[in-house]
Design brief:
With 329 residues, the chain is an alpha/beta fold. It has 11 helices and 10 strands.
């Protein structure tokens, strides 16, 4: 870990390379989607909210490389926003066979992160030494893709926003379930997963540890001004009477609905550890500073790297942040 001096340096070359590649498969190529729902969200908020404890059904566990893997399912509490084909929530539990733990953590998916392979790689060591892990699959990703959906690129803005709202409620339902089974519970996520984990920790009125990795107070700049914004199909969003600039402004307003400043503070802000990348080309480092300032008592840690490299090169630092957050409970 290093101090904050110099945060906001030139984006890492890997971030710039990925941004160039991402332009080959633009986001929101089918436009806004449900315009009426988006207008209603702008008028009254999309409804990020807590949910009752999930009623999970578990399949028979299996052991892989010394860890027990179990797949569980429950119905999304936001089935009103999702098509019938994606309302079934898929959860992966990872634990040491025969060991009863009083600690657990949930890790939410990053943007376009399908399946559980990356999260298993990053967090398996924490399972071996400290706590049980739970990974949850987002609507429209992996096993929850909609019929005809050919990739993790979500075609419309309304589907993406619905995914975000549903993800927060689904995480809240899982956290409430875990609160009845474990003494200490944490929620974590990287990038988009970090934003959703933060909102889930806010709306779920339980004493949780929060590990916000490469996240900030609002997703707005990510979709409008950063390297990530280069892969947004503003041409498709500008069709009709909107210019590209007005489309950019509206998109920013919609994603700003996910600002953490619209929600209550977590019950345990001192158990919040924020890990940011100095050379992040996708999430402006200043956003991590703002999140730290908003969550008074939280800790902000810096990695001297970019957005793309950090999960692979600095997984150990992220696992350390998780343990420290749990210790603060």
């Amino acid at each position: 870990m290093i101090d904050a001096a110099g945060a906001g340096a030139r984006p890492h070359f890997a971030d710039r390379a990925l941004a160039a590649l991402a332009r080959r498969r633009m986001q929101f190529s089918q436009g806004w989607g449900d315009d009426a729902w988006l207008d209603a969200a702008l008028a009254g908020g999309p409804g990020f909210s807590a949910a009752p404890a999930a009623k999970l059904s578990w399949e028979r566990p299996r052991v892989h490389r010394g860890l027990e893997l179990s797949d569980g399912y429950f119905e999304s509490p936001r089935s009103d926003l999702l098509s019938a084909a994606v309302v079934r929530v898929h959860v992966r539990r990872v634990r040491v066979p025969g060991v009863r733990r009083d600690r657990a953590f949930v890790v939410l998916a990053g943007s376009r992160e399908e399946g559980f392979r990356l999260r298993h790689f990053m967090w398996a060591q924490s399972v071996r030494t400290h706590a049980d892990a739970y990974f949850i699959e987002n609507p429209y990703y992996g096993s929850r893709r909609a019929p005809g959906q050919r990739s993790a690129n979500i075609p419309t803005v309304s589907q993406h926003l619905a995914m975000n709202v549903a993800s927060v409620s689904e995480a809240s339902a899982l956290l409430a379930y875990l609160g009845g089974h474990y003494a200490q519970v944490a929620v974590a996520g990287y990038s988009m997963g970090g934003f959703m984990a933060t909102l889930a920790a806010q709306v779920t009125r339980l004493p949780l540890a929060l590990i916000a990795l490469a996240a900030g107070t609002t997703p707005r700049p990510i979709y409008t001004t950063t390297l990530f914004a280069r892969a947004i199909d503003f041409g498709a969003l500008a069709k009709g009477q909107r210019s590209k600039e007005s489309a950019r402004e509206r998109l920013g307003q919609l994603f700003h609905l996910g600002s953490v400043q619209r929600q209550p503070l977590p019950l345990r802000p001192t158990a919040c550890v924020i890990v940011a990348c100095k050379r992040d080309g996708f999430v402006p480092p200043v956003e991590a500073v703002r999140l730290h300032q908003h969550f008074v008592g939280s800790e902000l840690r810096w990695l001297n790297t970019g957005h793309v490299v950090a999960p692979l090169a600095h997984a150990r630092s992220m696992r350390r942040a998780l343990l420290d957050g749990l210790d603060r409970l």
